[in-house]
């Protein structure tokens, strides 16, 4: 998974036109949530062994299909395979005019040749690179500390055991459906509304609904209010969180990760982001149950909501807008 999360955003960014790059990057998250939904739907009804056997079929199919994937024009130019790069770039962009094609490739090649090396010294020695890395890392940490890792891991415990004739497993499946559906909304809006607007909306909306979730669990666990007749509230608020998360926070990290870094440092930067991203998710998943058992579930959701509030402020003041810009424009700016 580490390789997938490192390479895929970079590959998608390099093969996509600026007008659809956001939607293409969101497609990565869409497939991720589709995988979640498949596991949610099958998991409760089969053994771990059977689930593992079913799950392994998807990577095998992908491995076979990947044999027909085109190589990135950036990679081909970096390896001086100009004719292949021209053919691939023309096929991906639809550009047939020879002069326009040569001009585009010349600019990309010049951009690649300007920045040959790619060490840690290069990454941290440049103020622009440091800023780009800081932006992506903060958004990755905010995304994980918004609580999605914990919600996915503990969904069957968070949602009510029975209400309206549905089991907690059924609620978990519905949660997966909602998350998946809203990624399509994100794909439709990412290149229209822009990354920044969607991220602010996503973070602030998640802050509000997770704060409401925290209030519910506080009232319930401290027996301040009789909540037996409103046990549907956690599912409602967390489902709204899933919707807000999916339109912005979910896809934004993989989207801008592939956009902000130039060819010489993007592999190194992506590796760092993947490690921090995975580490943050593991911390949230590990400590959710510990904090919830010791202090109450409402404390965990309070932390999640505050993380989202910080994310909305950070996106408003710091995050750049990359909508409809070429990679050269983004990385040169």
Automatic annotation (TrEMBL):
Keywords: Cell membrane, Membrane, Sugar transport, Transmembrane, Transmembrane helix, Transport
GO cellular component terms given for this protein: plasma membrane
Protein location: Cell membrane
Domain Major facilitator superfamily (MFS) profile span(s) in chain numbering: 1-323
Main location: membrane
GO molecular function: transmembrane transporter activity
TM region(s), chain numbering: 50-77, 133-159, 171-190, 197-219, 231-256, 295-318
InterPro entries: MFS_dom (IPR020846), MFS_sugar_transport-like (IPR005828), MFS_trans_sf (IPR036259), MFS_Trehalose_Transporter (IPR050549)
Cell membrane keyword on record: yes
Keyword Cell membrane: yes
Pfam families membership: Sugar_tr
Membrane protein topology class: Multi-pass membrane protein
The protein, known as: Major facilitator superfamily (MFS) profile domain-containing protein
Organism of origin: Graphocephala atropunctata
């Amino acid at each position: 998974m580490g390789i997938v999360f490192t390479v895929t955003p970079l590959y998608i960014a390099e093969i996509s036109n600026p007008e659809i790059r956001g939607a293409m990057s969101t497609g990565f998250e869409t497939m991720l949530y589709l995988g979640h939904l498949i596991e949610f739907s099958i998991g409760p009804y089969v053994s771990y062994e059977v689930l593992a056997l079913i799950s392994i079929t998807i990577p095998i199919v992908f491995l076979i299909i990947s044999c027909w994937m085109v190589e990135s024009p950036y990679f081909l130019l970096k390896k001086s395979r100009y004719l292949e790069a021209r053919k691939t770039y023309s096929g991906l962009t639809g550009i047939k005019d020879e002069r326009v094609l040569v001009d585009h490739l010349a600019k990309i090649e010049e951009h690649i040749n300007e920045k040959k090396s790619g060490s840690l010294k290069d990454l941290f020695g440049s103020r622009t690179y440091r800023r780009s890395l800081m932006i992506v890392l903060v958004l990755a940490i905010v995304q994980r500390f918004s609580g999605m890792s914990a919600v996915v891991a503990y969904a069957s415990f968070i949602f009510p055991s029975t209400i309206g004739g549905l089991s907690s497993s059924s609620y978990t499946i519905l949660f997966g459906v909602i998350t998946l559906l809203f990624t399509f909304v994100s794909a439709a809006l990412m290149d229209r509304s822009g990354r920044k607007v969607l991220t602010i909306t996503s973070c602030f909306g998640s802050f509000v609904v997770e704060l409401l979730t925290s209030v519910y669990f506080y009232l319930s666990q401290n027996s301040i209010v009789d909540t037996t007749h409103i046990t549907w509230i956690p599912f409602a608020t967390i489902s709204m969180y899933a919707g807000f998360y999916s339109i912005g926070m979910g896809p934004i990290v993989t989207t801008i990760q592939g956009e902000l870094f130039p060819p010489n440092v993007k592999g190194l930067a992506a590796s760092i982001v993947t490690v921090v991203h995975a580490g943050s998710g593991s911390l949230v998943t590990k400590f959710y149950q510990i904090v919830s058992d010791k202090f109450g579930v409402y404390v965990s959701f309070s932390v999640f909501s505050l993380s989202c509030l910080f994310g909305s402020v950070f996106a408003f003041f710091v995050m750049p807008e990359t909508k409809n810009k070429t990679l050269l424009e983004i990385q040169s700016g």
